[in-house]
């Protein structure tokens, strides 16, 4: 996000944007450059706000599919409306079990 904020906070001077000469892309989580527009190819003073908004939107929603898959998986164990009733620690224990299982108890059921 620091790179996106850099463009947002850069002074309104055309020569500074021309000197930077950056593509209208943002890095994805896997390191690939993601084009943010079919119209713009370089960031300039005129499209700076569009770049910042597009880059933030991409980064904020980059993992929507993965998050949805996690929610769907959790929903098979715990009804989604109940998720907000529990802390992260409580959810982990309900899904994964208690992390401290006494060795004697394990031996007794083996």
Please tell me about this protein's structure.
This protein is mainly α. Helix content is 55%, strand content 5%. Strands 1-2 form a two-stranded antiparallel ribbon. Helix 1 (2-9) runs antiparallel to helix 3. The longest helix is centred in the middle third of the chain and has 14 residues, at 48-61.
Low-confidence stretches: none
Question: Numbering strands along the chain, what is their spatial order in the largest sheet?
Answer: 1-2
Enumerate how many helices there are, as a single number.
Answer: 7
**Residue share in helix:** 55-70%
Overall 3D shape: elongated
Radius of gyration: 23 Å
Structural class: mainly alpha
The proportion of strand residues reads 5-15%
Helix-strand topology string? HHEEHHHHH
Biggest β-sheet strands, sense, barrel:
2 strands, antiparallel
Overall pLDDT metric: 86
Number of strands: 2
In short:
With 110 residues, the protein is mainly alpha-helical.
Produce the secondary structure layout:
Elements: H1 2-9, H2 14-20, E1 25-27, E2 33-35, H3 48-61, H4 64-75, H5 80-83, H6 88-96, H7 103-109
Antiparallel strand pairs: 1-2
Helix pairs in contact: 1-3
Key features?
110 residues, single chain, elongated, mainly alpha
């Amino acid at each position: 996000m620091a790179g996106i904020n850099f463009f947002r906070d850069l002074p309104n001077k055309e020569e500074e944007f021309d000197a930077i000469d950056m593509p209208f892309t943002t890095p994805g989580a896997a390191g690939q450059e993601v084009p943010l527009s079919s119209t713009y190819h370089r960031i300039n003073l005129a499209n700076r706000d569009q770049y910042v908004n597009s880059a933030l939107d991409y980064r904020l929603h980059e993992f929507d599919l993965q998050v949805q898959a996690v929610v769907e998986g959790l929903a098979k164990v715990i009804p989604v409306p109940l998720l907000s009733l529990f802390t992260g620690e409580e959810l982990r224990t309900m899904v994964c079990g208690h992390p401290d299982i006494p060795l004697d108890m394990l031996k007794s059921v083996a």
